[in-house]
Amino acid sequence: MTRAAAPSIFSVEAVNASGRRVSVEIPCEFPLTILLDGHEIATIMTLGTHPEELAIGYLRNQGMVESVEDIESVRVNWGEETARVDTFHGNAGSDPVTKSFSRMVTSGCGQSQMFECLLEALYGRKLRPIELRQSTLYAVLRKLADHNTIFRTAGSVHGCGLCTDADVVFFVEDVGRHNAADVIAGKMWLEGISGDGKLLYTTGRLTSEIVMKAAWMEIPVLISKSGTTQMGLELAQDVGLTMIGRVKKSRFLVYTGNETVLYDAPPDRGDD
Hints:
Largest sheet: 6 strands, mixed
């Protein structure tokens, strides 16, 4: 592991509404090409703060590496804009299906491509449900509010948090919510953390892609301040994922898994 984190914020000059020049901070964005055993897999536009975990998590969530124990090394070189992942057996990237999907993956707003076989592999999978108390949801959301440091400073990023019913395990910001989720997947593998009984929070939309990532990480609850799409909803129903969206203060919508939610802290009527 090279631990080659890039700077996350860049200072620029802009002109405000009064016509005055001001110094502001914006997030950085770098292309990072992932190579698996020497084979180019994808180029991801990323903030660059967790490149090794991003590469590992991306390969995990794409089903290209079966276990973290298969990985021999991860080497990031920003001069080459590459993350080279090598496995012990040395031929993980030579699969014909894998090679045919070398592609550009953008910052994540609905543009990344997914393998059809990856989607098909999820059907029939069922996550182990957990009981989620409404009061626990509120407590987790309060703790998450303190973690979006880059967004508060520079804006223009998404965030994802891996949570238990008592704490925030990881919180990651990146230029796309898919990247942030992949970084969490990589961290979970490296630290031997199971998704069982956990919650995944995202600031972005609950599309089919983010549902797929939660399912591959075996996380049974997905939460967002945004809403869902039809395909995201249908896939969540198929895999048994509790999906909660449009969260804001005491308001939220349970799209799937209502039977797992215990309403023990109902809001005032004016907050519905």
